[in-house]
Specification:
- The N terminus is likely disordered.
- The protein has two domains: about 120 residues, no CATH class; about 110 residues, Arc Repressor Mutant, subunit A (Orthogonal Bundle), CATH 1.10.10.
- It is built from 15 helices and no strands.
- By secondary structure, it is mostly helical.
Length: about 250
């Protein structure tokens, strides 16, 4: 937990010099490690990255500190919204939470407020943007199940039994909760979420298909192809080629 009694020793350097010196630190917010902790909803990892970033800009003048921090924090939210939109996971409630958070960021006037706001910022992007669930109060078991699915989406052991064990529920009761609230059983929901993530990686990243297969826990390449084709109507390779051709035609 960050102390509220924060005192900084300010040593001002030109913004251009700071960017050249700290380019790696600045871009690390969007590197592979950041993507991993975000996808897992790893709040501790995200806090470490953002805290390190904030402390790295203390060499700047105060107005430039705020400018750089505000740019990065807002960019994180807009990038997440863009990603959620591509996954077709945006809802009005998510947009509202995102806009409220951006408004808070715009009101922060010094780097101390950014550092003290990191925990709330992370809670918002994890709980309200990435893993939003409307069932928190009406069906806590379902809400927790959805969170577990999102956090373990790349785990090859993710299954209805896996969920039921974590929630201490029977598989039948768990599937009934999904069917009553979402119109599909638990296994179909897991498959839908996994397909959404796999499709995003196929379309919006340059990851080799073998890496995507391994990332989502498929040992057998044929099983991966069959799973994807069953849900998307094409093999992963054909799907990527199809999307690429459409983009090329529109350019």
């Amino acid at each position: 937990m960050l102390s509220r009694d924060i005192v900084f020793h300010m040593t001002s350097v030109p913004l251009a010099d700071w960017i050249e010196k700290n380019e790696e630190q600045l871009t690390s917010i969007w590197d592979g490690r950041w993507s991993v902790v975000v996808q897992r909803g790893d709040k501790h990892g995200m806090e470490e990255a953002l805290s390190s970033f904030c402390y790295s800009i203390l060499d700047l003048e105060e107005t430039e500190q705020v400018f750089v921090a505000r740019t990065v924090f807002v960019s994180i939210i807009t990038d997440l919204l863009r990603t959620q939109g591509k996954k077709r996971a945006l809802r009005p409630e998510i947009l509202q939470e995102a806009y409220q958070m951006i408004y808070k960021i715009e009101c922060w006037e010094n780097i101390s407020e950014f550092i003290l706001g990191i925990q709330g910022f992370i809670d918002t992007i994890v709980d309200k943007i990435l893993f939003y669930s409307p069932f928190f109060e009406t069906c806590p078991h379902l809400d927790r199940a959805i969170r577990i699915i999102n956090q373990h989406i790349t785990n090859r052991d993710l299954s209805v039994s896996f969920l039921a064990e974590h929630l201490i529920l029977s598989t039948t009761h768990l599937s009934n909760l999904f069917r009553l609230n979402l119109g599909m059983n638990a296994s179909d929901y897991i498959a839908k979420r996994k397909i959404a993530e796999i499709t995003y990686d196929i379309v919006h990243t340059s990851l080799p298909l073998a890496d995507i297969r391994e990332k989502y826990g498929f040992i057998s390449h044929s099983h991966f192809i069959q799973f994807f084709k069953r849900h998307q109507g094409k093999t992963p390779l054909k799907y990527r080629q199809h999307v690429t051709s459409i983009v090329g035609d529109n350019e």
